[in-house]
Structures are given as structure tokens and as C-alpha cells.
UniProtKB/TrEMBL annotation:
Pathway: Cofactor biosynthesis; adenosylcobalamin biosynthesis
HAMAP family: CobQ (MF_00028)
Organism expressing this protein natively: Anaerostipes caccae (strain DSM 14662 / CCUG 47493 / JCM 13470 / NCIMB 13811 / L1-92)
Domain of life: Bacteria
GO MF, one annotated term: ligase activity
GO biological process, one term: cobalamin biosynthetic process
Name of the molecule in the record: Cobyric acid synthase
Protein family per UniProt: Belongs to the CobB/CobQ family. CobQ subfamily.
Domain CobQ/CobB/MinD/ParA nucleotide binding stretches: 5-227
Length: 504
């Protein structure tokens, strides 16, 4: 059975996902067959595995760092929030149903056998498993029947490293307070602490570290720096949303829906010189971009109504009539159509008028479409003609079926890698485009071709912009992450903890 170590945090967004990914990379580099694991993930960024199952993207990123194929065993429970009080519950990659927070809290203990089954399957196949917790283990209202923090550590009999975020301040109180709220048995599981996102001279921090170790009687095994890495974000806590981005020669605006999902579709544009990718949520922030991207949404109808009420819909319509490129993916694609109908109350029920920019109608179905695909763009006219015939690999995750009419033109041709079925997907008319396919910009130089086409339209020569190999760039980023963690973590101590396990 695999050796295990668990990364828990004092709160959300302290860097657990990246620390987990970095340790996976280090262990891989050191010759260990390693897998990530997170029993329960709450995120709207998801992924479809090669066998057509849905899991959180954070564990996909960690699997990539470990150099292995993502498996739903790495994330047996995925919660996709559909409202402030409810989520779609996905177990072993398939939709179980929608539940309120209260109903799920009462139900989740019944999922422990599924968690154990997934963990045991990984444990038989790998040398090492790096487990990630969620939020904080010291949420006293959630500790009963916990399945993702100390409850998971007990199931796996895993030692714990506790991570605190110094960038937001109060890291000593975070770590000390968390330890104080744990039971005596839970405290024994914590074998080390990590102070994450540090900027500055570490020697200034040393007296505080000594005092912290004295108070909690647990060693600090590393003070890790703040790292700007181009890796997939776990959820809407993403710092990029609040980043003030300077407008560049090519300016792209992403509409930041309240229930935005799979915004990682657009990460590749951030890597291209002379391009600004901005996330906007008010009409005043939109400005006059060269391209507007409408991402996925976990509640398309509610987010469409928000778009309408906020005034952003009118702004987008004006931009479309001016000739600005509009591109929607998944929920964003559905919004661009004429009618959205939800007869089965998959989301909020009812029938809503769309933005009317594409001649499609969407009906939400009870069955979720999940597939990995490989294909190419069809022949396009207008601004995006340079991507005609460009190859792509991606995946579908959606509850709706869209039908074309009128002057609609199909956007892509692809093969479902699971069953070999080929079909057309997506729609375009003039300067407005939409598709259900996530990851459609990642392969080859598709994003660069779009940027160069926009430059050509503006009379700017961007032909010398280097093509970005997105997959190689991610590999380089994982190596950089591992290098930084090796410099700042006591890996000798961490290996000692791994091999000793949770024993006193």
C-alpha cells in the first residue's frame, strides 16, 4: 500500500493545491510513482477523463505534475455550486443530483465507502499519495462527519502538514488557532507546518517561527515564497479575477458571471505577448475590447438574467453590432442563442429569451453530456478565418442540447474519443461564435492565430508573436514549482514524515 501525506490549510486559498502539486512533482522526479487525492472538491472548474467521467481540475493539474493520467479516483466527490445554498453532487464522475447544503451535510457520510474505495484503488497502484484537504480542519460546525480534512486523514491514516498564508496577514494566529481547535488525536497527526506565500527577507521572520514552534510544539518544515505560476486555478477564488490588467495592443474581455465555470479555457491567451485578458463584471469595466469571451456557467439562466440586469448584455449587443468578435463556450454559447428552455427544472426551470446573436435554441436535459473529443475547425469567413482547419482536443460537459436554424453555420467537426462517433458542433454567424467544447484554444497555435487576426484587423503586425506550446509551458511550470519548493522546504524532514506515517 502507498505511503501517504496530507496537506491541510488554515483556510481556503492558502495554497494547498499548489503545495500538493509541487510535492507530486518532487516525488515523481525522485523516482516515486505518485498520485494526488482529494476526497471532496467544491469547484466549478471541472474536466472529463478519458473514460468520460467528471472530476475537479485541481486534481487534473496535480496528476499532470505527477506525470500520470487523471483518474476520477483522485477526486471521487465533486460539488459544483448552482446557487448560494445548493450544489450539483457528482460521485465517481457521474451526477448524483442537486442537493441543498443542509441535505448534503446530512447525506455525505453515506459516501465514505466510495471515498475509501477510490483511495484504496490508488493506494494499490502507486508508491505515494499526496492528499489535499479543503478549507480548514478547524471549522467546528463542520467537524462532525468530516470526510475531507481530519476525517480523511484518519481514513487514510495519513500524517498532516498544515499550511498557512502569510500574504494576507495573521499567519501565526492562523496556525496557532487552528491547532488549538483540533482534538488531541488530531493534533498528533500534524507533523509539520508550512508558511506559504512569503515575500521578503526570511531572517526577519525567524523569531516568529521560533515562537510558533515553541507554542505548538510542531516544527515549521518550510517558508515558501509567493510564486506567480501559469497553472490552472481551482475555483473562483482565483486571484486573477481581482488583478488590475493593463490594456495591451490586443484587449480581450472575459465576462465574469457570478457562477462562472471552466474559465481555465482562456488561460492560453494570458501567455501571448501584447495581449491583455481582463475579467469584467460591470458595464464600466468592459470598455471597448477587441474580443469578448463568454465562459461556462453552472446556472446559465440565472447568469443570463444577471447579465441582463447588470447592463452588460446591452453592452455586448452593441459591441457585436460594431463588429467586435464575440465567442461563447458552453453556458456562454447557450446565452448567445434565441431561446433557453428548462422544462425539467435542471437549473431554475422555465423559458428565457437569449441574447439573439446566434440562431440556436437550447433545451436543458436531465442527462449530462460528458465526452473527450478531438477535431478541427471548419472553414470560417470573417475575422477568424485564420483558424479554419485548425486542430483541437477538448471535452464537453453540459446539460443542454442546442439546435440550429436559419442562417446558422457549424463551427467544428469532431470525433468523440470514447465511442468514435463523429459530429458537428458549435455555431457561427458573422463575428459571433459559440461552442460546447472546453479546451478548444489550447492545442497548436489557435490562440496565436486569433490574436494575429485581431492585430491584422486593427492594422497591427503581430506576425512575429512566438507560438506558445501550452503543454510544454505547463511542464516547465511544474518543474519550476518543484525547484522552488525544494529550495524552501525541508524535504529530508518531509521524507521522514512520509516514511514514518502517522505514528507518534
Amino acid at each position: 500500500m502507498a505511503k501517504t501525506i496530507m496537506i491541510q490549510g488554515t483556510m481556503s486559498n492558502v495554497g494547498k493545491s499548489l503545495i500538493t502539486a509541487g510535492l507530486c512533482r518532487i516525488l515523481k522526479q525522485d523516482g516515486y510513482k505518485t498520485a494526488p487525492f482529494k476526497s471532496q472538491n467544491m469547484s466549478l472548474n471541472s474536466y472529463i477523463t478519458k473514460d468520460g467521467l467528471e472530476m475537479g481540475r485541481a486534481q487534473v493539474m496535480q496528476a499532470e505534475a505527477a506525470g500520470i493520467e487523471p483518474s476520477v479516483y483522485m477526486n471521487p466527490i465533486l460539488l459544483k455550486p448552482s446557487s448560494d445554498t445548493g450544489s450539483q453532487v457528482i460521485v465517481n464522475g457521474k451526477v448524483l443530483g442537486n442537493m441543498s447544503a443542509r441535505d448534503y451535510f446530512a447525506y455525505k457520510k453515506t459516501l465514505i465507502p466510495e471515498i475509501q474505495k477510490a483511495f484504496d484503488a490508488l493506494s494499490r497502484e502507486y508508491d505515494m499519495i499526496v492528499i489535499e484537504g479543503a478549507g480548514s480542519p478547524a471549522e467546528i460546525n463542520l467537524k462532525q462527519d468530516d470526510i475531507v480534512n481530519m476525517g480523511m486523514a484518519e481514513l487514510a491514516n495519513a500524517p498532516v502538514l498544515l499550511v498557512g498564508d502569510i500574504d494576507r496577514g495573521g499567519v501565526f494566529a492562523q496556525l496557532t488557532g487552528t491547532m488549538m481547535l483540533l482534538t488531541e488525536e488530531e493534533q498528533k497527526r500534524v507533523k509539520g507546518m508550512i508558511i506559504n506565500k512569503f515575500r521578503g527577507d526570511k531572517t526577519i521572520l525567524d523569531p516568529g517561527v521560533e515562537m510558533l514552534e515553541e507554542k505548538v510544539q510542531i516544527p515549521v518544515v518550510g517558508v515558501t515564497p509567493y510564486m506567480n505560476l501559469e497553472l490552472d486555478d481551482e475555483d473562483s477564488l482565483s486571484e486573477k479575477f481581482d488583478r488590475k490588467t493593463k490594456k495591451e495592443l490586443v484587449d480581450i474581455a472575459v465576462i465574469r458571471f457570478p457562477r462562472i465555470s471552466n474559465f481555465t479555457d482562456f488561460n492560453v491567451f494570458e501567455l501571448i505577448p501584447n495581449v491583455s485578458l481582463r475579467y469584467v463584471k460591470t458595464p464600466g469595466e468592459l470598455g471597448d475590447p477587441d474580443m469578448i469571451l463568454l465562459p461556462g456557467s453552472k446556472n446559465t439562466i440565472e447568469d443570463l438574467l444577471w447579465l441582463r440586469q447588470s447592463g452588460l448584455e446591452n453592452m455586448i449587443l452593441k459591441e457585436a453590432y460594431r463588429g467586435t468578435i464575440i465567442f461563447g463556450i458552453c453556458g456562454g454559447y447557450q446565452m448567445l442563442g434565441e431561446v433557453l428552455s428548462d422544462p425539467h427544472h435542471v437549473e431554475t426551470g422555465g423559458l428565457v429569451k437569449g441574447m439573439g446573436l446566434l440562431p440556436i435554441d437550447t433545451v436543458f436535459s436531465k442527462q449530462k453530456t460528458r465526452s473527450r473529443v478531438k477535431g478541427r475547425f471548419l472553414k470560417l469567413d470573417g475575422d477568424l478565418y485564420p483558424i479554419s482547419g485548425a486542430p483541437f482536443e477538448g471535452y464537453e460537459i453540459h446539460m443542454g442540447i442546442s439546435s440550429q436554424h436559419g442562417n446558422a453555420k457549424p463551427l467544428t467537426f469532431f470525433e468523440d474519443k470514447g465511442n468514435g462517433v463523429t459530429k458537428l458542433c458549435g455555431t457561427w454567424v458573422g463575428n459571433v461564435y459559440g461552442t460546447y467544447l472546453h479546451g478548444i484554444f489550447d492545442l497548436s497555435d489557435t490562440a496565436e492565430k486569433i490574436v494575429r487576426a485581431i492585430g491584422e484587423k486593427k492594422g497591427i503586425d503581430l506576425s512575429d508573436a512566438p507560438a506558445t506550446d501550452y503543454r510544454q509551458l505547463k511542464e516547465d511550470q511544474y518543474d519550476l514549482l518543484a525547484d522552488e519548493l525544494r529550495k524552501h522546504l525541508d524535504m529530508e524532514k518531509i521524507y521522514e514524515i512520509l516514511h514514518k506515517g502517522a505514528e507518534d
